[in-house]
Amino acid sequence: MKEQMKNKILNLKADKKAVILAHYYAPAEVQELADHVGDSFYLAKIAKKSAADIIVFCGVSFMGESAKILNPEKKVLMPDLTADCPMAHMVAEGKIEEMRSKYDELAVVCYINSTAELKSKSDVCVTSSNAIEIVRSLPNKNIFFIPDRNLGRYIAEQIPEKNIILNDGCCPIHEAISVDELKDEKAKHPSALVLTHPECRAEVLALSDYIGSTSEIINYAKNSPALEFIICTEEGVAYKLTADNPDKHFYFPKTRPLCRDMKLNTLEKLLHVLETEENEVTVDGDKRASALSPLDKMLDLAR
Ligand code: 13P
Ligand code: SF4
């Protein structure tokens, strides 16, 4: 049954000249079928240069929106249009305008995990794999970093010469990773290295051996001579980690971090959108035009 479904997806994809992009947090069987699997930055770059007629984005709405903004002439579909990132909305109404009037020469730096509306009011976008490089390169001393206070605080620690103003948003999944559960895992596996996403709380980062985006965590584990790792990010990365490193062991905190929105990207829904071409992502013209500039700036600065 599953095999039949997978074959149908692959045949439809070829017939319709579609490309399937999946984030590392998507279900393993979707990652297995996708043409490109990666972190937010890699997928944005792929979306920008894709020659396919249809992009099927197995991620959450800010990813589908970004693909559409970068590639407006393409049809961008999502298996489930309700797959959304709660953090993408976590900037209070009027906050950006308030900060712009309060601080001179302020740059509003927007984590890509944000709505098109928020991007359209920002100066530059970043992802967790390029945020430090991009913020450091900006001429502005005052930076308002939205929406993630955890990534913002981590960047501020790396770039003390900037005045980084934090916003009170966070990823509920990474925020919930417990220091006590991490300590328990460390006690059980004393030789394991702790690899952590910067969306986690400061106490979790303080116990980590390496901090990076999903791709950076995956690359680190592959290149490290260590054989055991405790992973502090969403459990979807386990698929790639175990595929790349069959002889290494990966452990997660006891309450396995799981993003329910990412898991809405099932094989059944992927097949359905390829068959029907429903669930098209749209971004209205004005918003698209003003959200394009910060995304393009990110792609330029991170080169
Ligand atoms: P990266 O893929 O950039 O590491 O971001 C993680 C994330 O939370 C995406 O939703
Ligand atoms: Fe958003 Fe967190 Fe899910 Fe990523 S893991 S999509 S940041 S809720």
Describe this structure in words.
With 303 residues, the protein is an alpha/beta fold. The chain has three domains: 2-84 and 262-282, Rossmann fold; 87-172 and 288-301, 3-Layer(aba) Sandwich (Rossmann fold), CATH 3.40.50; 177-251, 3-Layer(aba) Sandwich (Rossmann fold). Helix content is 44%, strand content 16%. It is built from 15 helices and twelve strands. It has helices at 2-15, 28-33, 40-49, 61-70, 95-102, 116-120, 131-137, 149-158, 172-175, 179-188, 202-206, 214-223, 238-244, 267-276, 285-301, and strands at 18-23, 36-38, 54-58, 75-77, 106-111, 124-126, 142-146, 163-166, 193-196, 210-211, 228-232, 249-251. A four-stranded parallel sheet has the order 2-1-3-4, with helices on both faces. The longest helix has 17 residues, at 285-301. The protein starts with a helix and ends with a helix. The model has no long low-confidence stretch (mean pLDDT 97). Bound molecules: 1,3-dihydroxyacetonephosphate (13P) and iron/sulfur cluster (SF4). Iron/sulfur cluster (SF4) binds at residues 25, 60, 85-87, 113, 171, 173-174, 199, 234, 259, 261-262. Iron/sulfur cluster is lined by residues 25, 60, 85-87, 113, 171, 173-174, 199, 234, 259, 261-262.
